[in-house]
């Protein structure tokens, strides 16, 4: 669904009034339009071409893209949660463009979310698009709803994971993935 610009602008005005602000004051009068632009940008991450390649020689080992910075919004407070995603899969005859793994993360991140669902959606999408031997997704994130309000605990972070196929079945494969994402070497 696309953004209902009129409704969004009206609701931002109402929201500002409800928290005791004057939506017509200098600093706020453009805010409804800015928020419309922001949500249009977020929506734009939903669609992209999942380029895949089948000419990959005999490559049938793990592909890992780690430390993917992501930003999402907790659906309970609409405050950001953000951190790093690590994705691996073992191809079965085809791979995707590496940037597409980042695009998949963005596709599901830029919407009201919970971290557990987000992690699962990324893994399910890759399963569907690549039919690999298995997918592993680990996400580590700080939730501002726990840092800047409520329990006010900025040192804690949340780790979620979704493993499918060979990553679930084979301990050696799972450990290889965990070792790769936990090594701090860049090259
Ligand atoms: N699997 C794999 N993909 C690569 C490698 N080097 C570059 N790529 C990816 O090749 C893909 C080409 O995808 P296209 O959709 O044709 O190109 P694009 O529109 O420029 O893609 P974006 O980078 O997503 O903007 C990109 O996802 C690159 O990240 C590589 O060594 N292995």
UniProtKB/TrEMBL annotation:
Stored InterPro entries: GTP-CH-I_C/QueF, GTP-CH-I_N, GTP_CycHdrlase_I, GTP_CycHdrlase_I_CS, GTP_CycHdrlase_I_dom
Example GO BP: tetrahydrofolate biosynthetic process
PROSITE patterns: GTP_CYCLOHYDROL_1_1, GTP_CYCLOHYDROL_1_2
Keyword match Zinc: yes
Enzyme Commission number, as recorded: 3.5.4.16
EC class of the enzyme, as a word: hydrolase
Coiled-coil regions listed in the entry: none
Chemical reaction(s) catalysed: GTP + H2O = 7,8-dihydroneopterin 3'-triphosphate + formate + H(+)
Keywords: GTP-binding, Hydrolase, Metal-binding, Nucleotide-binding, One-carbon metabolism, Zinc
Signal peptide extent: none
Subunit note: Homopolymer.
Recorded family membership: Belongs to the GTP cyclohydrolase I family.
UniProt-recorded name of the protein: GTP cyclohydrolase 1
Organism name: Hydrogenothermus marinus
Lineage: Bacteria, Pseudomonadati, Aquificota, Aquificia, Aquificales
Gene encoding the protein: folE
């Amino acid at each position: 669904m696309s953004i209902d610009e009129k409704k969004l602008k009206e609701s931002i005005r109402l929201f500002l009034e409800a928290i005791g602000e004057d939506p017509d004051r200098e600093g706020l009068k453009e805010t409804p339009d800015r928020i419309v632009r922001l949500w249009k940008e977020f929506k734009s991450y939903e669609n992209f071409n999942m380029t895949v390649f089948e000419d990959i020689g005999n490559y049938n080992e793990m592909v890992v893209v780690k430390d993917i910075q992501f930003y999402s919004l907790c659906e309970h407070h609409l405050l950001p949660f953000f951190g790093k995603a690590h994705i691996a899969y073992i191809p079965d005859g085809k791979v995707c463009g590496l940037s597409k793994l980042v695009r998949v993360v963005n596709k599901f991140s830029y919407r009201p979310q919970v971290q557990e669902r987000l992690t699962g959606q990324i893994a399910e999408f890759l399963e569907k698009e690549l039919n690999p031997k298995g997918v592993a997704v680990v996400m580590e994130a700080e939730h501002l709803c726990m840092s800047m309000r409520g329990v006010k605990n900025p040192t804690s972070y949340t780790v979620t994971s979704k493993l499918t196929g060979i990553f679930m079945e084979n301990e050696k494969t799972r450990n290889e993935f965990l070792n790769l994402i936990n090594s701090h070497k860049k090259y």
